[in-house]
C-alpha cells in the first residue's frame, strides 16, 4: 500500500535528559538555547522549510506547558511595554515564533514503556491512517539544508517505501557511539538493519550513521507497542524500522546538511561552536 505524502511531523522531547541535570529538572532539554532561540525552534523551522507546518511536539508532563507557552503565548504585556518604548522591532522575533506553524503539544502516554519509540506511539491518534509522517528527535540539529526536505524528496521517488531514514558518513573513531547502517542493497540504498554502538570498527557494517530523522508509514505502529521492547526493556524506534525493512523497502538517503547531536553537554558545546561559525559567515 502506498501512503499519502506527509503533511505532519512529530518532534520528540519526552525523556528525562539526566545528562543535563540540574537545568533539565526545570526546562525541557530542547529548550536549551543556540543563540537566542531554543534548540526546539530550529527543529520546528526545519519542518517549515521542508514544507510541513502541522507539527506535534511530544513532551513530558512538566514540559508540555512550557512548549505551549513558548509557541502559543502572545505575551501581550511585553508587546505593550515595547510599544510604549518605541521598540516594537524587538518583538518581531516573538511574532515569528507565534506564526511559524500549527503546533500541538501532547504529553507522552504514561502507560508506554520508556524508550525513544514511545513518543512516536503517543502521537498516533493525531496522525492520519492513510498518510506517512516525519519524525524528528529534537536533540539532533541539522546545519545547512534540513533533512525534512530531503526525506520528502526521497518519498517522491520511492512512494512505496515502508520508511525512509537519513544518514551521515562518520569517522571510524566514533562508530562505537552511534547506530551504524547495514545496507541490504547498496545500489538501491535499502536498509538491512542497524548495528547499535559496535564495540570494534570491524563490527560496523558501514560508515553510515543513523540518527533522529525519519519518514515513517503508519505500519510502524504495529511494532511500537509495549510487547515489542528491546534492549534494557525500552521501546526503540530503530527496532521498529528494522522490522519494517523485513517486509518491504526502507530507503537510506544521505543528509544534505551537517548533523550534530546536542544530547549531552560535550556535544552541545560542539554544536554551539558550529552555530557560532555559521553566524559569522
Q: Proportion of β residues?
A: 15-25%
Number of domains: 1
User: Fraction of residues in helices?
Assistant: 25-40%
- The CATH topology annotation reads as Spore Coat Polysaccharide Biosynthesis Protein SpsA, Chain A
Strand segment count: 13
Averaging pLDDT over every residue, what do you get?
A: 95
What form results from the Cα inertia axes? Answer: globular
| CATH architecture classification name | Alpha-Beta Complex
Helix count, DSSP H or I runs of 4 or more residues? 8
At the first level of CATH, the class is Alpha Beta
What gyration radius follows from the Cα positions, in whole Å?
19 Å
Q: How widely separated are the two ends?
A: 46 Å
Give your account of this protein's structure.
The protein is an alpha/beta fold. The protein has a single domain (8-280), classed as Spore Coat Polysaccharide Biosynthesis Protein SpsA, Chain A, CATH 3.90.550.10. It contains eight helices and 13 strands. The protein has helices at residues 39-50, 64-72, 76-84, 92-98, 118-122, 147-157, 237-247, 265-280; strands spanning 8-13, 33-34, 37-38, 54-59, 102-107, 133-137, 140-143, 163-169, 179-185, 190-196, 208-216, 250-254, 258-261. A hairpin with a 4-residue loop joins strand 9 and strand 10 (190-196). It is globular, with a radius of gyration of 19 Å. It starts with 7 loop residues before the first strand and ends with a helix.
Amino acid at each position: 500500500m502506498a501512503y499519502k505524502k506527509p503533511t505532519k511531523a512529530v518532534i520528540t522531547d519526552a525523556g528525562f535528559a539526566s545528562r543535563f541535570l540540574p537545568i533539565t529538572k526545570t526546562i525541557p532539554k530542547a529548550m536549551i538555547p543556540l543563540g537566542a532561540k531554543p534548540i526546539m525552534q530550529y527543529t520546528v523551522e526545519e519542518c517549515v522549510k521542508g514544507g510541513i507546518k502541522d507539527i506535534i511536539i511530544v513532551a513530558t508532563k512538566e514540559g508540555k506547558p512550557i512548549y505551549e507557552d513558548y509557541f502559543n503565548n502572545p505575551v501581550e504585556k511585553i508587546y505593550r511595554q515595547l510599544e510604549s518604548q518605541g521598540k516594537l522591532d524587538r518583538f518581531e522575533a516573538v511574532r515569528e515564533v507565534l506564526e511559524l506553524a500549527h503546533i500541538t503539544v501532547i504529553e507522552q502516554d504514561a502507560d508506554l514503556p520508556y524508550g525513544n519509540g514511545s513518543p512516536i506511539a503517543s502521537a498516533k491518534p493525531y496522525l492520519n491512517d492513510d498518510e506517512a509522517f516525519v519524525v524528528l528527535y529534537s536533540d539532533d540539529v541539522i546545519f545547512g539544508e534540513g533533512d525534512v526536505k530531503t526525506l520528502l524528496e526521497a518519498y517522491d521517488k520511492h512512494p512505496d517505501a515502508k520508511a525512509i531514514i537519513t544518514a551521515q558518513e562518520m569517522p571510524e573513531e566514533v562508530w562505537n557511539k552511534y547506530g551504524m547502517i547495514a545496507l541490504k542493497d547498496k545500489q538501491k540504498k535499502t536498509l538491512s538493519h542497524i548495528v547499535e554502538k559496535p564495540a570494534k570498527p570491524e563490527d560496523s557494517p558501514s560508515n553510515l550513521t543513523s540518527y533522529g530523522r525519519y519518514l515513517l508509514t503508519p505500519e510502524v505502529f504495529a511494532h511500537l507497542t509495549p510487547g515489542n521492547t528491546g534492549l534494557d526493556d525500552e521501546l526503540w524506534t530503530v527496532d521498529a524500522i528494522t522490522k519494517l525493512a523485513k517486509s518491504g523497502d526502507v530507503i537510506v538517503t544521505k543528509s544534505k546538511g551537517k548533523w550534530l547531536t546536542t544530547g549531552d553537554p560535550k556535544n552541545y558545546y560542539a554544536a554551539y561552536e558550529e552555530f557560532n561559525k555559521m553566524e559569522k559567515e
